[in-house]
Specification:
It is a single chain. This protein is an alpha+beta fold. Helices cover 23% and strands 26% of the residues. The protein is built from ten helices and 30 strands. The strands form eight sheets. The protein has a four-stranded antiparallel beta sheet, with no helix packed on it. Strands 4-5-6-7 form a four-stranded antiparallel beta sheet, with no helix packed on it. A hairpin with a 2-residue loop joins strand 25 and strand 26. Helix 2 packs across helix 3. The protein is globular and about 105 Å long. The termini are far apart. The N terminus is likely disordered.
Amino acid sequence: MTGLGKLADRETDAALGGAFAKGSTAHTHPADDIALSDDEKHPRALSDSKTKKPKDNDIKPDAVTLDIQKRSEKYQRGTPAKQKGKEKARSKTAQAKLTHARNQRDAAVLEAARSEALLTEESGFMEAEHMERTYKVTQKDLASHVDISSAAKIFDLSLPDFGPYSLSYTPNGRHMLIGGRKGHIACMNWRSGKLGCELHLRETVRDVCWLHNDQLFAVAQKKHAFIYDHTGAEVHCLQKHIEPTALGFLPYHFLLASTGMTGRLVYQDITEGKVVGEHKPGYGPTHVLEVSPYNAVVHMGHANGVVTLWSPQQSLPLAKILCHKGPVQAMAIDSTGKHVATSGLDGRVKVWDIRMFRSLHEYTTLRPAQSLDISQRGLLAAGWGPNVTVWKDALTTQATDPYMRRQLPGSTISDLKFVPYDDVLGYGHSAGISSMVVPGAGEPNFDAFVANPFETRKQRQESEVKSLLDKLAPDTVQLDPMFIGRIDPRSYSQRQHNRLVDARDEYSKNKADGKYVDNNVKNKMKGRNSTAKRFNRKRQSNVVDLKKVLEMEKLEREMRETDTKRRKVPEQEQGALSKFYAERRNE
């Protein structure tokens, strides 16, 4: 190196040294800030400043996290996320249980939202171009444009001698059960065309219903309801179900509900055989009964246009809704339990919001609809006369035109049902059974733990055992199914105080309204037949007001003090220290 190079290096070193001496922020080589101690084998930094870790609130979520959070909103159950921190318990054990339950609930919601990434199937509807209309597309046109397996789902079974027919599908949509009014019963795997059993009861059959799986089904016959197995053998005769006209099954409670010509609603446990509930609405014979898939509440339609909601353990209806001016002909409930569709003899099909008990909109048919059903994707189907009409987005909005339509000249539609997890609508009529393809009707993705269309024999047996172990009690059927597991975080003293405050407020309000006339009653006699005594006896004995609460508390306090005074003093409390025990007793 030349002399000029050494001089330049010295000047550079001097400039850098001066800069560091003045507190400059110039950067140096990383090795200058590292030193080795005598006991250390690895270098350590001379600076004592600790690196700050970013907080969770400072980290901005990415697009995937935001998408999962948005999807998890529809899986929320119970307490909203904003109010979770307000749940507090009195003891640490109860608080730990609340925290554990909350964490499990959050984990389940997160797993459900993440599992949507595995749902590859999507539902698709039929779209029309320009001036075309979807309801003008016939089943023959659809059969020529769909695949072979879908085209095979369009069929007609001609059974003119035993109709009209009612039908039912299993929860997984694999098996179909049909029942003719003149006693013809048959169950089959309608996808493969394999017949399970066929019976000719030679007796009137009004309704048929699958139970928890395809091994047992119930039939509403002329005098009683009967249960048969998949081979056609009679298993039980339910004599409590007298002259049934409609059947419904509660899958999570294993309860069979029926109503009939007597007008009674009967609940019977099919696992134990006992009747868990029997109610008499008092509106005469009933032919319409539906079970809500959301909360298992039974909806009954009566001849005076009223729809009543029932629970097995309550003698009075949970709610009453005046839906039509004439008899209720049919009813359908969607899978979320929020909307109910009813049809009356007045030729109107109304859609109700069951949360507010309010009518949203209505449709008009030329003849009264005899059967209604709502698909898993929210399509509303109505069978009136020889016609089948399907409306798209008919629950949330008012549909102007039908989505699909089909007509069977010379026949009358008696019953129709959507096939779960498939775009198929089956309907029974006076000439047999028919099936039509309705694009976008079924749920494209299924949960194998709930209903598996491809389940094997071993899987069916395991699911039956698990469902029996998870069987719910009849008293859990309520309008709000989320009431189970709720804990009142208030202590006993707080509840008593709030109850006393409410009673005081109610007493002052009623006294201001003039409902209490105790001050105006004159005490002319001191015996049992005095004016005040007679007035108090006429009032309701179960009314609890502020005056009665205070009298009960005073009487309880006096009885406690009297019992304490009459108590014998033990020997260990006598002597020089007796005054300390006396003070404790007075406390």
